[in-house]
Amino acid sequence: MTLTQPVYATREMIKRALDITETARANAQIDRLLASCSRSMDGELHRVFYPRIDTLRWDWTNPSSPTPWRLWLDDKELFSITSLTSGGVSITPSSLILYPNDGPPYNRVEIDISTNSSFSLGNTYQNAIIISGMFAGCDLEFFPIGGLVVATNDNVTTITVPNGALVGIGDLLRVESEYLLVTDRGWLYSTQNLQSDMSASSGMVTVAVTDGTDFNVDEVILLNSEKMLIVDIAGNNLTVKRAWDGSVLAAHSSSDIYVSRLLTVGRGAIGSTEASHLIGTAISKWVPPPLINQRCIAEVLSAIEQEQSAYARVVGSGETAIEARGVGLIDLRLQTCTTHGRKNRHRAV
Known about the structure:
globular
């Protein structure tokens, strides 16, 4: 499947945790479970962690309530506000107070009662209050990953990054005001060739290149049909793990070296607008809260094993069969609920 919403871990994180080799079947299963486990966590914790640019509506607050100047956002928590209108009347941000004071995320919007502003009815109380902004159930952290290697217009679906090790399938990227969701990756010619022959031996772990500064630790390279993981770089010698990701060990001579830096992306993600970007434009990626990332990885790993055992109480078979208890996962679920869970509000009418 193709991911359509941000997830809380990447395909690469899951495959490294279970040492799953590269197959289309494994990729499709992992992407499906990443999506389902991420959305399940949203529902359980009563909040959505990834950012969304949106315009949402609420009913006019009850004027007979003790606090008619207060609007609870519930699970539509706010990171930043662009505009608010009530009954068709715009209320300036200076007349609004966002709570809690140590946010974001903000769970309510209040009118500053020292001003003349108020929530108004308009033609009907239904959907009378309209808020535009960035919505997220956590504070947002972005990590820089370099600049665009190739300029892009507003309709291409691939971008090139300088370091493939910093990006995974499922990552949410930000380029200026546009957000992009990484859905797949491909290979690019590095413009370099192997400088010394390599035998088909797992002990032959040195890849000689003309310029080692063009490569990065933890990147995957491709020589002919063999993938290799770069674990260290010394000058113009790359130290690698051979036959990486289920590829076949082989001999190489003067081979072209390819790098996995071509990303297939969903443009205009999370409500942003597609745009053209110049070469060198800074790219950053959204980083989920660490505990949410850890929980998502654990949920996907558990789901993969459970699917393989048809959701039986025993995982594996014969002498390798073990009881599928998941005690560690239970503890992790409790931690996330304690740290990130939001109480679900119930209102009387």
